[in-house]
Amino acid sequence: MSLRRALALSVGLGVVVAACFKVPYTNRKSINLVPDKLMINLSASSYGELLQAEKLTKKGEDKELLDRVGKRIAHQADRKDYAWEYSLINDDETVNAWALPGGKIAFYTGIQPILKNEAGMAFVMGHEVGHAIARHGAERMSQQLVLFGGLAGAYALLESNTKLSTEQNVAILAAAGAVAEVGLILPFSRSHESEADVIGAMYMAGAGYPPEEAVKLWGRMERKTGGAGVPAFLSTHPANNKRQEVIREWLPRAEKRYERNKLTKDTLSKRW
Ligand SMILES: [Zn+2]
Predict the structure, then answer these.
(1) Which bin fits 30, alpha (ψ -120 to 50), beta or left (φ > 0)?
(2) pLDDT tens-digit profile of 75-84?
(3) DSSP-assigned beta bridge partners for residue 88
(4) What sign does the dihedral 146-150-153-155 (CA atoms) show?
């Protein structure tokens, strides 16, 4: 191997090793090519933009509870460089919550009947914070970068080694890209969902909420959606019963944490 190649290889390996990161609890190694600081700054500005189009609930009991639960869960995550923010979007039609890298969280009022109580909210909060802590956004972006790099390389090879037209080469690559999307990127998104569930259950338990409620919450979601929608292999979300299974596996560990940190107040009575 020439010195130049050896040097290039070691630099490349160095980047990958430096970019390796162990996800809490699951200990999965993830590759992250996007610097943390960049992600945090990008998401801080998109958060404002995303919320601009929404009607926000800025005060009242529900918002106060969201802030309180958010703080308790963020304390578990222990990332002092994150500027945590929790927004309540007044939209009863949307059954959703999301997180941006760096700790920017949003809940829609439409998810409240599924949360049902404070413990349910703590689990979904834990799940969203889990996405941020496991840096799933950066990982997805890294995968897209690698995929795009691969496609660009394949394009150069096709152009110089085949007699196909540029249109034909682009069509081949588009098909390859679509296959990679369904075969590689989608399953990753689904494993991200289950990973966020595990982190969410452990965080909620550490914050003093009964983790059993996480399993019940997916049961409520199942009844609400009737199990309908796209088949699990095409969806970014694993089927609700699959999610319950993964959480159940972790339940003994989460229960132990909960026993040590149990809140004395009732967090299971119905609020919504
Ligand atoms: Zn999620």
Answers:
(1) beta
(2) 999 998 899 9
(3) 107
(4) negative
